[in-house]
Amino acid sequence: MNLDLSRRSFLKLAGAGVAATSVGAMGFGEAEAAEAAHVRPFKLATTTETRNTCPYCSVACGVILYSKGDLRKGETADIVHIEGDADHPTNRGTLCPKGAALKDFVKSPTRLQYPMHRKPGSDKFERISWDEAFDRMARLMKDDRDANFTATNQNGLPVNRWSTTGMLAASATTNETAWATFKFAKGLGIVGFDNQARV
Amino acid sequence: MSTSPIQPDPSAIGGIPKAPLAFMPNTARLFKERAVRLERLAENSRLAPYLTFLAGLVRIQSDLVDALPTVDPIPAEQVERAREAAMPPLDRSAIGQSAVFRETLKQFLDRAEALDKPAAAAEALAQVQLADEATLDWMVENIAADNLPIEALAQHLYVAAAIQIHAARLAGGLDAAKLVPIQVGVCPTCGGKPVASMVIGFQGAEGTRYAGCSCCGTLWNEVRVKCLACGSTKGIGYRAVESGTEDATVKAEVCDTCHSWVKILYQNKNPSVEMVADDVASLGLDLLMKDTEYKRAGFNPFLIGY
């Protein structure tokens, strides 16, 4: 990319043997060859640095996740380190103690990775499928809303209030996700509600 | 009541400064520290002969900064005009015509004669010393365009080193606060290409990334995880020479958008890292990267051709 073979220059400064690299052209070809021989058995290790948003609170600090391996190259990737993103205008590289412990959150053996259900009276959680989970949530939400929905206030004015179910959403969301979350919750009339759209 | 001399300073809490756009080269230290680092790296490297030779050249650069008469600063109106047009205030195309630069080049070449060097390097030096005006102008133009002809790398290396002295002296007289960002991967002082970039641990800018100019030595802020060649943030990955569990301090930042790579040094992990010196000393990474689909985009007149 930084090379230019021009006849003009060749004619002007012909004389020194043409070597294609600075090191070779200065007469250090032997050292260059020694380095090449030394490095030949080594392999290149792939790592990635990925930007994301801390999921904990509505401040939404920027973080950089360091991993070994690259998913895009068909490798498996493993997060080795997480730190504050110094380029992010909100936190400029800083993190609170919770955010600074994010790697343990990702790696936690008790981390929730799929829907779990603890049956009434049971002392343990059991894994269920997403379909089962959604069906059950929809059923319970509908039953609760049908039983407790407030359609008018004490003065008889129509309102949209469902105060017996609450909803809490995470912070690592885009504007669009926050908008959709808000419409979903408020459309149902959920009163006890918090998400990123509040800030 | 506490009698400890260590007192809490709550004013430091919440006062996270914004990383400055640029750090101007400190000419009193730039070349001196580079020479020291090159000598240090030469102690344990297969490239020791070349590193030692470069250390000698850089020592001359450092000595000349002290020995040369002071250089006229870039006029304030030129800086202002450049600001308005988002252009670099240091005009590299004008360097060739500068009498101070011609004197810098002459003294640099004269002093370089005394260095121990292979025959090829000595021959190239003699050719540059004997070169006519037109040839010198042409070499300065090539270097100002960051485009070195492959068959004259040795000759251009000497001229580029002399330009570095002159450009660093001009840049050193500028106020970093007067600079404006120009474009990703372009030096805001002289418009030059970066040698590499460095994640720094400087107080007030910890963990940010600065690109280092191959011409004037300015360090300028660039957002991390972003290609310095094309500005893309998609498909950025890192490659390093595998070394067991140890975390590499020199990596290749590769870009799947433009298929090029630029070295990134982690100065926050090893404070003795110096961009130009460590770029040359990490030639092994360049050699391994040669076999990949990516092209080197970092520009260093001491390390062309990889």
How would you describe this structure to a colleague?
- The complex is a heterodimer of chains A (199) and B (306).
- Chain A is an alpha+beta fold.
- Chain A folds into 4 domains: 7-39, no CATH class; 47-107, Phosphorylase Kinase, domain 1 (2-Layer Sandwich); 112-145, no CATH class; 149-199, no CATH class.
- Chain A contains 7 helices and 8 strands.
- Chain A has helices at 7-13, 22-25, 29-39, 97-100, 102-107, 130-148, 175-188; strands at 44-53, 62-68, 78-84, 116-117, 126-127, 150-152, 158-168, 190-194.
- A 3-stranded antiparallel beta sheet of chain A has the order 1-2-3. Chain A has a 3-stranded mixed beta sheet with strand order 6-7-8.
- The longest helix of chain A has 19 residues, at 130-148.
- Chain A is elongated and about 95 Å long.
- Mean pLDDT of chain A is 88; it is low at 1-17.
- With 306 residues, chain B is an alpha+beta fold.
- Chain B has 2 domains: 22-177, FdhE-like domain (FdhE-like fold); 182-296, FdhE-like domain (FdhE-like fold).
- In chain B, 38% of the residues lie in helices and 12% in strands.
- Chain B is built from 9 helices and 8 strands.
- Chain B has helices at 27-42, 48-67, 76-84, 99-112, 119-130, 133-144, 153-172, 275-281, 283-289; strands at 22-23, 194-199, 209-213, 219-222, 236-241, 250-255, 260-266, 295-296.
- In chain B, helix 5 packs across helix 7.
- The longest helix of chain B has 20 residues, at 48-67.
- The N and C termini of chain B lie far apart (64 Å).
- The chains are: A alpha+beta (199), B alpha+beta (306).
- Chains A and B meet through helix 1, helix 2, helix 3 and strand 1 of A and helix 2, helix 5, helix 6, helix 7 and strand 5 of B.
- Strand 1 (44-53) of chain A pairs antiparallel with strand 5 of chain B.
